[in-house]
């Protein structure tokens, strides 16, 4: 299949490579001239045969809106736009309506996999009309992990990003639980091998998970996380999850507490946030602040 890909950063660039490895033709555009295949969005659209499909992987909000506005002026009836970034689901509904007025389809795709997706595949949660989703299925099949799972048509437009938002809310709570357990183990004098305690949990326990594996990776690199500052950003999706819970009267005490813990990390050097920061860096390549960086500042 032929597809355009806008945004060739950490995830977009790896997705381009995974799709090409699977035999698909990918025309990529990025504002970074070292990454892009074409000099402009117009050239990207011209390179594609109709009906065209263009996948957008740029930051949510203004950048996504700007790209979709430009694509709306370049694409034609029966073409499809896929938003694979971390847009809010309410933006999806707006974008779908704007594009539908021009006869252009819209699909939202929640994508999880971070910097590991190239090798292991990406979990995909997709929203949109069945006709549009089916046309893109060869691309979804190439991006997903091997095996029967990792891809779902979650529902109508907005469902993909809503599902990914909830996924990220759960991720917040899981990371916070590991971080709290790690801090308590580090605190008591009787436990003098915390890293190996975490490692022992990787087999045969009910709390084993990929996040636990990544925690062990982080501890292997810095056993007591002494190089990290206890500061962790939130990407926005944790906030949206809590807001959606309020709107729907659904109690989310663990996810809400995990979000508030991120806020607490910005007040002091939180030991728990060292683990959260380490985990975010391990699975997503997210930026971290080191002790040396803070001292130099």
TrEMBL record:
Keyword annotations from UniProtKB, A to Z: Gluconate utilization, Oxidoreductase
This protein's name: Decarboxylating 6-phosphogluconate dehydrogenase
Keyword Oxidoreductase: yes
Domain 6-phosphogluconate dehydrogenase C-terminal: 160-293
Matches recorded under PANTHER family: 6-PHOSPHOGLUCONATE DEHYDROGENASE (PTHR11811)
The family this protein is said to belong to: Belongs to the 6-phosphogluconate dehydrogenase family.
Coiled-coil residue spans: none
Gene name tied to this protein: gnd_1
Keyword Transcription applies: no
Pfam families to which the protein is assigned, alphabetical: 6PGD (PF00393), NAD_binding_2 (PF03446)
InterPro entries attached to this UniProt entry: 6-PGluconate_DH-like_C_sf, 6DGDH_YqeC, 6PGD_dom2, 6PGDH_C, 6PGDH_NADP-bd, 6PGdom_BS, HIBADH-related, NAD(P)-bd_dom_sf
Record-annotated membrane-spanning stretches: none
Lineage of the species this protein comes from: Bacteria, Bacillati, Actinomycetota, Actinomycetes, Kitasatosporales
């Amino acid at each position: 299949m032929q597809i355009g890909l806008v945004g060739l950063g950490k995830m977009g660039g790896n997705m381009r490579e995974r799709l090409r490895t699977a035999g698909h033709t990918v025309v990529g555009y990025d504002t970074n001239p070292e990454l892009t295949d074409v000099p402009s969005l117009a050239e990207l659209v011209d390179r594609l045969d109709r009906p065209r499909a263009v996948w957008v992987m740029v930051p949510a909000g203004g950048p996504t809106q700007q790209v979709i506005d430009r694509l709306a002026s370049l694409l034609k009836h029966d073409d499809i736009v896929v938003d694979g970034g971390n847009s809010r689901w309410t933006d999806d509904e707006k974008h779908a309506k704007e594009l539908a007025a021009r006869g252009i389809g819209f699909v939202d795709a929640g994508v999880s996999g971070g910097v590991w997706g190239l090798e292991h595949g990406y979990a995909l949660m997709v929203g949109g009309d069945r006709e549009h989703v089916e046309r893109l299925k060869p691309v979804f099949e190439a991006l997903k992990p091997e095996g029967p799972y990792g891809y779902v048509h979650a529902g109508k437009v907005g469902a993909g990003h809503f599902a990914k938002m909830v996924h990220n809310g759960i991720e917040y709570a899981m990371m916070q639980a590991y971080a709290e357990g790690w801090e308590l183990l580090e605190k008591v004098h009787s436990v003098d091998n915390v890293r190996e305690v975490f490692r022992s949990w990787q087999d045969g326990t009910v709390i084993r998970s990929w996040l636990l594996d990544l925690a062990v990776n982080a501890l292997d690199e810095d056993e007591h996380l002494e190089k990290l500052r206890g500061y962790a950003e939130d990407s926005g999706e944790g906030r949206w999850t809590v807001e959606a819970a309020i709107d729907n009267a659904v109690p989310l005490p663990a996810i809400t507490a995990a979000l508030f813990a991120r806020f607490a990390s910005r007040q002091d050097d939180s030991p728990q946030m060292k683990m959260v920061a380490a985990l975010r860096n391990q699975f997503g390549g997210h930026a971290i602040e080191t002790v040396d960086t803070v001292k130099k500042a």
